[in-house]
Amino acid sequence: MTVCEYRAGLEGIPATQSSISFVDGQRGVLEYRGIAIEELAAKGHFLETAYLLIWGELPTEEELELFEHEIRYHRRLKYRIRDMMKCFPESGHPMDALQACAAALGLFYSRRALDDPTYIRAAVVRLLAKIPTMVAAFQLMRKGNDPVQPRDDLGYAANFLYMLNEREPDPFQAHIFDVCLMLHAEHTINASTFSALVTASTLTDPYAVVASAVGTLAGPLHGGANEEVILMLEEIGTVENVRPWLEKQLAQKGKIMGFGHRVYKVKDPRATILQYLAEQLFEKYGRDEYYDVAVELEKAVEENLGHKGIYPNVDFYSGLVYRKLGIPSDLFTPVFAISRTAGWLAHWKEQLNENRIFRPTQIYTGLHEATYVPIEKR
Ligand code: ACO
To answer: In which pathway does it act (predicted)?
Structure first.
């Protein structure tokens, strides 16, 4: 069967069937396995959410305890991975470091027993456990410090902030970060998840699947936008400058980072929750200097581009939350990757259940029966 209509970016073309998450872009609805994101954010936590996404059901108390225990046990990095990281240039982007580290895990655990549930579970646990450690280790190493070892008495979110900032976060900060991880964990077939699916469909190992997704997430049109948002807010600088800046940007047909979405035509429900989290953090630890600029920019963009369905996406307020948690701006996208690993792994597992290699078609626009011209005659 050949479908001849070409749509740039595969817009509107189903590339898979999935029961993991659902988005209604007109009503601003996001559900993980049928549960509204607002409900999960209010009542759940990240590892429980990861389990739900990957295994399809909320875990029982014993299942969750075992899962958390396994993750805690696998958080440490092999010394060879740490040695490899020492050779990375400090000026390199942390997403590139993370992609290299995720791929390097495949060197140690490359057995591709994709029909063995024990292998699948071990890969899920290792990736969820080690990716935060890799992100934090790169941050400390590029500052010339030794990485901090994970602490078994801390939960997933608290341990990451501890390894990153070399001090234990207070429970409120850890809770806010945990909610951020939940919000970013999954989002149907976005670019990085599609990349993960294509890689998974060749039956390669899960470390290659996650490494390919990390590379895709890094781009400024996808996960990289959260870092760009902060640079943009810094460039705008003041509330008074918002409208002149926007006018100039629109005149140059420039994109406003953190706005617009292929699926959402209203404000992304995750942006609403993140804005609320940002306000909670500011109440306790002081207002971010760029928050008022962000709020004014949201208003101005809505006035100018709301008719095109352009509203804040998940990346718009996340950076302001991360800054308050002491996370440097070039780690915003790696933090996104920590969380999205849960979604990528859920899709990897789902793809394996009914795998067929991705091999789409193309519409050829080149020449036929062209002549080879000898080099001296070109
Ligand atoms: N600022 C200004 N105009 C925009 C924006 C924006 N952020 N987003 C879309 N538009 C305009 C486009 O210029 C285009 O206008 P036109 O029809 O008059 O030419 C129209 O809206 C459609 O935009 P596309 O780029 O074709 O929409 P697409 O669905 O392909 O892209 C995307 C979606 C990539 C997210 C886009 O909105 C964008 O580039 N946003 C900024 C980057 C960003 O925030 N990315 C994060 C997305 S969320 C995530 O991946 C985690």
So the answer is: Carbohydrate metabolism; tricarboxylic acid cycle
